[in-house]
Amino acid sequence: MLDTTRRPDRHRHRVNPFELSDEDFRYKYRFSKRFGEKIVGILREDLVHDPRGCPLSPEIQVVCALRNWARHEIQDDTADLHGVSQPVVSRTCKKVAEILSRKSREFIKMPTTLNEQQETIRKFRSIANFPTVIGAIDCTHIRVKKVNADGGQLYINRKGFSSINVQVVCDADLKIMDIVTRWRGSVHDSRIFRECRLKQRFEAGAFSGILLGDSGYPCTPYLFTPLLNPTTPQEERYNRSHIRTRNTVERCFGLWKQRFRCLLRGMFGDIETAKKTIVACAVLHNMAIDMREDVFSGERDSIEQYSSEPIVQRYIAPSIRGNIRRRQFIETHFQ
To answer: Which keywords describe this protein according to UniProt (predicted)?
Structure first.
């Protein structure tokens, strides 16, 4: 005989996660309850309830996305914890990422006023006495699932896995001031910078400082790279100071990926959602720095097994103007 007894709906039992203790909330979501409440406050008006079926509150939507990105567990586990289905978690993460990426200009921005630029320069100089630095630039590869569409092979980087090559400029506090997520893994760092809007702004004189980059970039009047073969004490001092100051962007990547394990282990959704999720994680990273969020220590030791060596970029020869400007800079500041 056919059993027509209705099964209990496990997806309708939901507990408000903000009723948890601070310690339990941090264990489940890797951030403080205060941080979660701040995100809910920013996104509440945009997280409209779905009128069909059982609606999800803004609180549930935010913590589903936060747990999925920060812990990078399978979505079924996040779904079971919050009394929803896996497809609901997937749609919720996509929705929250889209909203945060739309708001990114409020949280990810270069210093524009003279006072803001001078303060940024001052903080960079305090690291290794390298003057006039307004940002450290580099790229990092975020793994994505294999792309089978036409052009999918262009996502495969030099290490042989599919990725998005993400360009970031950070400040001395490790906050992300500029981010570009539209390039496939096979594209060289120098091309990404050459075709980005930030380069145009530097060429137009929008900033009073310079960027520091590695030898994967050409040396220009506004982007200084290390000397390939320093021969004088002044050049060696320049290189030592350059390396210590530019290292902020490497530390930024490490902190960002430690906070959001999805950036370490890879994105499994479609490419467009992956790009928006990367930007969303950058927004949350900046908010966490502003709110002095401690890094969750529960998985601190395991980060090494997911980190990889940077993909080595070929050396890019400096431009003539860049070489002259760097030489003058060394003679002025590193005597």
So the answer is: Cytoplasm, Hydrolase, Metal-binding, Nuclease, Nucleus
Nearest residue to 258 (alpha-carbon basis) of 294, 223, 221:
294
pTM: 0.89
- Which residue type, as a one-letter code, is found at position 316? I
Token output for 104? 């990114």
Mind listing the pLDDT tens digit for each residue in 210-236? 999 999 999 999 999 999 999 999 999
- Angle at the Cα of 319 (from 187 to 191), degrees rounded to 5? 10
The answer to whether 174 touches 252, Cβ cutoff 8 Å, is: yes
CA 280/CA 107 separation, integer angstroms: 10
By residue count, the chain amounts to 335
Instruction: Work out the number of other CB atoms within 10 angstroms of the CB of residue 24.
Output: 12
Tokens of 60: 């549930």
Interhelix angle for 22-29 vs 58-71, to 10°? 60
In angstroms, the CA 19 to CA 5 distance is 34
Whole-number Å distance between alpha carbons of 28 and 191? 40
* Token reading at 124: 């960079």
Residue pair 256/228 in contact (Cβ under 8 Å)? The answer is: no
d(CA 262, CA 21): 25
Q: How far is CA 180 from CA 57, 62, 138, 282, in A?
A: 32, 24, 11, 11
- The least confident of 111-115, 124-128, 133-137, 293-297 is 293-297
- Which strands form 176-184's sheet, in the order they lie side by side? 176-184, 163-170, 133-143, 210-212, 223-224
Rounded to 5 degrees, φ, ψ at 44 are -50, -50
The per-residue b/e assignment along 163-187, b for 16 or more CB within 10 angstroms, e otherwise, is bbbbbbbbbbebbbbbbbbebbbeb
